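User: Can you predict the 3D structure for this chain?
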Amino acid sequence: MLTLNELKQGIMHLLYPRLCEGCNRQLLEGEELLCIGCATELPETGYHAIAGNETEQRFAGRFPFVRATSYCYFTEDGLLQHLLHGLKYTSKKDIADFLGRRFAQQLAVTDWISTVDEIVAVPLHPDKEALRGYNQSHLLCLAMGAVLHKPVTEGNLVRVRATESQTSKNRAERTDNMAGAFGLKDKKGMEGKHILIVDDVLTTGATIEACALAILEAAGARVSIATIGITV
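Assistant: Here is the predicted structure, written as structure tokens:
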């Protein structure tokens, strides 16, 4: 005999069926956010297991880091772009939980992740975060931290000045635009720590570079980078 809770859940599924975020097909029992078909189409990079991967190459020579990796390739009109747009612009926060946990499960098998002390999201501009109501990268951090059993720090790494839109700028212009845009409220709080910086998509890396340079001002601090997507 069904319990009252099971009966309620059954009625809710009938009235509001769970649909795949990729193809809009009704999800089956055991499927989460994406159907099995769409989940297998996520363009995973495998970079977590590859030293000298493309993510690391994009940051090479710009600042010292331990490791850098990206979960999936980000392409125009691709599945990952669709998911991240849903997360950023239509408040589908469960997408952050889904992507963050899957990424973290890959990172959990690496040897370097055990040395990470804290996870930090790239901060949004305060006006943009107020308008959206949340920082999507912080939500990704929370999901990753839960799987990796690492604390997520918020409020120490902050934007200290406004910046122009990066959209129409080239790599050099983006780097100049972001220079000195971030700072630490408490440098001592990050002294001697290995900090994992998390962002949604890596393009030129100018924003992450500015965050890393701010963190590296803390004595003995080290950084690694993890992004959900990398543009190709």
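Strands lie at 68-74, 118-121, 152-153, 157-159, 182-184, 194-202, 222-231. The chain has nine helices and seven strands.
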